[in-house]
């Protein structure tokens, strides 16, 4: 019961702070200057790569790890997490292969 009461109090506090009116002072801001647009284009933000379906045999222990981590991080699925880990590993290996000081 105490938990429900605390949640209600937090909700009331948050909604009260959102309804406060912002008051702006009519004072000089200072010297302003325009800056170059540094944000990427929307199509760059919506990064989608073509997927390829593969069949992969993983150990039960690996799958349990990815499922546990996916739940812990509230990701959509453990497969998404495993795909990210695979991509990161491949990217690191590719980077190492093209470094001039990379070991054979």
Distance linking N and C termini: 63 Å
Total strand segments: 0
| Secondary-structure class | mainly alpha
| Helical run tally | 4
The ordered string of helix (H) and strand (E) elements is: HHHH
Poorly predicted runs:
none
Q: What's the shape?
A: elongated
From the alpha-carbon coordinates, what is the Rg to the nearest angstrom? 25 Å
Query: Sheet bearing the most strands, described?
Result: none
Query: How much of the sequence is in beta strands?
Result: under 5%
As a percent range, the share of helical residues equals 40-55%
Oligomer: single chain
What value does the average pLDDT take? 77
Task: Give structural notes.
- With 104 residues, this protein is mainly alpha-helical.
- It has a domain at 61-104.
- It is 53% helix and 0% strand.
- The protein has four helices and no strands.
- The longest helix has 21 residues, at 78-98.
- The radius of gyration is 25 Å and the shape is elongated.
- The termini are far apart.
- 2% of the residues are buried.
- The mean pLDDT is 77.
Which key features would you list for this structure?
mainly alpha; 4 helices; 104 residues; single chain
């Amino acid at each position: 019961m105490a938990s429900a009461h605390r949640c209600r109090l937090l909700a009331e506090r948050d909604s009260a702070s959102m309804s406060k009116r912002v008051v702006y002072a009519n004072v000089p801001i200072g010297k302003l200057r325009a800056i170059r647009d540094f944000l990427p284009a929307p199509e760059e933000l919506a990064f989608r790569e073509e997927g390829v379906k593969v069949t992969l045999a993983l150990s039960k222990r690996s799958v349990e790890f990815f499922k546990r981590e996916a739940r812990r991080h509230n990701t959509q699925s453990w497969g998404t997490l495993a795909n990210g880990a695979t991509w990161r590993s491949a990217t690191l290996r590719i980077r190492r292969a093209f470094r001039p000081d990379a070991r054979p």
